[in-house]
Amino acid sequence: MRTATITAIATFAIDQISKLAVVQGLNLIERGVIEVVPPYLVFRMAWNRGINFGLLANDADLVRWGLIVVSLAIAAWVWTWVRRENPGLWTQISAGLLVGGALGNVIDRIVYGAVADFLNMSCCGFENPYAFNVADIAIFAGAAGLVLFSGGGKDKAPRKPRRKTP
Q1: Using CA atoms, how far apart are residues 32 and 16, in angstroms rounded to an integer?
Q2: What is the pTM of this model?
Q3: Would you place residue 160 in the very low, low, confident or very high pLDDT band (cuts 50, 70, 90)?
Q4: DSSP for 80-120?
Q5: HSE-up of 34 (CA within 13 Å, CB side)?
Q6: How many CB atoms lie within 10 A of CB 69?
Q7: Which residues are tagged catalytic?
Q8: How does pLDDT run across 116-156, given as a tens digit for each residue?
Q9: Are 101 and 115 in contact (CB under 8 A)?
């Protein structure tokens, strides 16, 4: 559980620090676009009021608070599951990534009313029209890791033997 906690805290911190540095520090809100290493890395300001790729995007407070509740519920469920199951290293890292990323985006929704997305990457003739953030990467990697590493019990950490009472 310690690994999941450290991973969640680190993920949350990296996400929030990167958003502060780029969105506020580099004033991306007003600048709109900063070409770092075009087209491979461009900072492009986007406010996501929905879920991935702007799905369910809506300016209604009901959608905003609904997404906050859903994110918190999923994070709480994953956290409870990890505590109960005592999974192995990779599953704990995956859970920490998902929880830390989800909480990072929840903070954005509370503070800004939308998720601050700013990373845009394109390559090899493919122009990516979408922006994302560190939390989005962590959520995706965490969810994929949970699917890959949590099945079948092969990744489980050994449980301490219970003491027999006389």
Answers
A1: 19
A2: 0.82
A3: low
A4: HHHHHH---HHHHHHHHHHHHHHHHHHHHHHHHSSEEEEEE
A5: 16
A6: 11
A7: 117, 136
A8: 999 999 998 888 888 999 999 999 999 999 999 887 555 55
A9: no
Q: Which two tokens stand for residue 58?
A: 């809506």
CA-to-CA distance for 22 and 16, rounded, in angstroms?
10
Query: Would you put residue 113 in left (φ > 0), alpha (ψ -120 to 50) or beta?
Result: left
How far apart (Å, rounded) are the C-alpha atoms in residues 115 and 110? 9
Residue 95 to residue 141: CA distance in whole angstroms:
9
- Structure tokens of 69? 């509740």
In terms of DSSP H, where are the helices of the chain? 2-19, 28-31, 61-85, 89-112, 134-149
Position of tokens 């956290």? 79
